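Quick one, probably user error.
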């Protein structure tokens, strides 16, 4: 009987490591080839396999009572739920959509990378930028890399990166001769 438990534990750990490797490669593939968000099935599968694979050998090896076993699983499930909720929240706001940009100004700074990957902002005209992002909060004189005045720059409020709400983030698009040449998301 003890030999069978050891074999099952080893098989569980091997399956666990294999699944994590396969899922990790799938996540890497989705991120590398332009998909900004890991598909929703990846993280829950990793978490469930971790709980199941770790829980069985612990239960068989340590001979916990059923009450202790259930409390361990409930604690793990709670931690997983909190971590998954945070992950989903972060990933949701890291993908740019027109609707999210206009409805949730406080999380715009999280969407900037996705925005720049989805649209090639540099090379666009001011009108094209306004079609995507809407009217800027501020149109100001701008400077190019050589600190020479350029025609103008659009500034969009992008939210607060920290919880202290000290320095708001500004997404700035600098135009020269009517064409966007540089973008930056900075604390003002």
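Nope, works fine. Designed sequence:
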């Amino acid at each position: 009987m003890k030999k069978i438990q050891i074999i099952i534990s080893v098989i569980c750990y091997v399956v666990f490591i294999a699944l994590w490797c396969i899922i990790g490669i799938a996540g890497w593939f989705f991120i590398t080839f332009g998909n900004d968000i890991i598909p929703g099935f990846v993280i829950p599968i990793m978490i469930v396999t971790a709980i199941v694979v770790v829980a069985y050998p612990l239960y068989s090896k340590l001979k916990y009572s059923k009450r202790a076993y259930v409390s361990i699983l409930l604690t793990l499930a709670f931690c997983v739920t909190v971590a998954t909720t945070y992950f989903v929240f972060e990933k949701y706001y890291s993908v740019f959509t027109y609707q999210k940009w206009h409805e949730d100004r406080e999380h715009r700074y999280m969407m900037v990378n996705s925005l720049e990957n989805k649209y090639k902002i540099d090379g666009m005209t001011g009108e094209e930028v306004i079609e995507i992002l809407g009217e800027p909060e501020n149109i100001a004189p701008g400077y190019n890399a050589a600190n020479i005045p350029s025609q103008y720059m659009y500034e969009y409020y992008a939210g607060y990166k920290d919880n202290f709400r000290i320095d708001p983030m500004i997404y700035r698009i600098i135009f020269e001769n009517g064409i966007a040449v540089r973008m930056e998301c900075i604390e003002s």
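The helical segments are 2-32, 42-62, 66-93, 98-103, 108-118, 126-133.
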